[in-house]
Design goal:
Blueprint (H helix, E strand, L loop, with lengths): L6 H9 L6 H8 L1 H19 L9 H44 L2 H11 L17 H17 L14
Helix pairs in contact: 1-3
């Protein structure tokens, strides 16, 4: 290992966490890193030797009062943020709904029907008869022609709406 160990590696060794195999080898060969590890061990021992400090009896009351004040100050911001989000959603829906309705194939069906050839608009027979294969093929072709006459959809998927 050409460079010295990082503080994270040294703390991992000090705390007994798993480390790369090269870390202990480097510690054995590098005086500087070994000294830094020893300094970290002494600092932890010194901190653990400090006496426990009892907070003043009113400390928790003061903390609770500050937390309640912060909560009451943040509530108007939360309401304002929610209102702003609702307005954005409303504007987006209002802007996209007319486009979605305009691009709906059902709204173009009367236009497509008017554009069909006269032979295709012939009145259906008065009695209900099971159509033959040839009639189904003709009907399929007519439907395909109607689909081709429709304007192309501008949005195929939501993911392409922004492009």
């Amino acid at each position: 290992m050409a460079m010295h160990l990082s503080i994270d590696q040294l703390l991992s060794v000090r705390d007994g966490a798993p480390v790369d195999a090269a870390v202990p080898e480097h510690l054995a060969a590098c005086e500087r890193c070994a000294a830094e590890l020893e300094r970290l061990r002494r600092a932890r021992a010194a901190l653990r030797a400090l006496p426990d400090v009892e907070p003043p009896p009113t400390a928790w009351e003061a903390i609770a009062a500050r937390a309640a004040g912060a909560r009451s100050r943040s509530r108007p911001l939360l309401l304002a943020g929610g209102l702003a989000a609702a307005i954005v959603v409303t504007v987006m829906v209002a802007g996209l709904l007319p486009r979605a309705l305009r691009d709906d194939p059902a709204t173009h069906a009367p236009q497509a029907a008017a554009a069909r050839p006269a032979a295709a608009r012939a009145a259906p027979p008065a009695t209900v008869v099971e159509p033959s294969v040839a009639e189904r093929v003709a009907q399929s072709r007519e439907l395909e022609w109607m689909l081709q006459a429709l304007p192309p959809r501008r949005i195929e998927r939501v993911s392409t709406a922004a492009t």
